[in-house]
Amino acid sequence: MENPPLLSDPTFSSMPLSLHLEVGSTTLTAAEWQQVDVGDFILLERCTYDTLQKRGTAILALAHTPLFDVRIKEGEAKILEYALIQEETPMTEENTPEEELPPTEMEEKGETEEENPLWATKNGEEKLIPSGKVPSTWTAEVGRLQMPLEKVTQLKPGNVPQLGLSPEPIVHLTIGGKRVAKGELVQIGEALGVKILTLGD
User: Fold this and answer.
1) Residue 173: which of 139, 136, 134, 148 has the closest Cα?
2) What letter does residue 109 receive in the DSSP assignment?
């Protein structure tokens, strides 16, 4: 079996890729982030690591693409299975059940009322909001690994990538793949979050 063209070319096969290990995420607006300071606690909306048991699961990802589900135990990461990527299927007239179809304009108001054009203002023009109030996804990352493209394609369930994790991993908050803060996972009651230790300049 021949190698794909990219892997056959040594220039591409040795190209380094940055993989990262995600254990949680939350949503914050830029305005909310501007108020964050060292020592603050950022609540995670999703977290898959148990700080008491010092174990959990994570996602090994390349940029925004999940590659594998990973188990973390005693500072070691083991690939469990390929990550499940779910794609949203838009509901159209063809796949919407008949009983769920909304009533037509004629059924609701009869033929006496003229239908408004789609571009009419009363049909609902969305109000503009400041960009600082738009929520973004912030990811809690516990490790990174530089690996050549050829070796990335050889990863499979059962592999144990060397990520240099500690039993109490340091967490980096990232947005768009860029690290903007360093912290530690903290559990307060049933809530899990990140205590900020250092902020980016």
Assistant:
1) 139
2) H
